[in-house]
Design a protein that fits this description.
Keywords: Signal
Signal peptide: 1-21
Number of domains: 1
Radius of gyration: 18 Å
Strand content: 5-15%
Strand order of the largest sheet: 2-1-3-4
Protein name: DUF5329 domain-containing protein
InterPro entries: DUF5329
Pfam family, one: DUF5329
Length: 119
């Protein structure tokens, strides 16, 4: 390929590198959302408590929205930007699991992520 041909490919390559979620992030977020859905916990957002399945759906929607706008580089970015607080009200999300104290969703999700990573 000529030098000129490479220059023509650069914008396409840049777009393709940003168009798809980074595989480790996609995989970790999917596993994390499966943990949310199976947790049996309740999740508080915008004045109400929601069951685990509803929380997982909501967080999945937020993840997909963020990925469409600007792919995330780290799972922690998802937790910070989408799963810790309401983008509408700015209020923190909370998690209430049976027999445990209510905690900030950020804390709960980071602990689950560490466990998923083997930590």
């Amino acid at each position: 390929m000529t030098r000129r041909g490479w220059w023509l490919l650069l914008p396409w390559l840049a777009a393709m590198s940003q168009a798809q979620p980074q595989p480790p992030v996609q995989q970790e977020v999917s596993l994390l959302l499966a943990e949310v859905a199976a947790s049996g916990c309740e999740f508080y957002r915008n004045g109400g408590w929601y069951d685990a399945a509803a929380a997982a759906r909501h967080l999945r929607d937020k993840f997909q929205y963020l990925q469409a706008r600007r792919p995330l580089k780290r799972t922690e970015d998802f937790i910070e930007q989408a799963a810790s607080r309401s983008s509408f009200s700015g209020n923190a999300y909370r998690v209430r699991c049976p027999g445990q104290a209510t905690v900030a969703s950020r804390q709960w999700l980071l602990a689950r992520l560490a466990r998923l990573r083997g930590g």
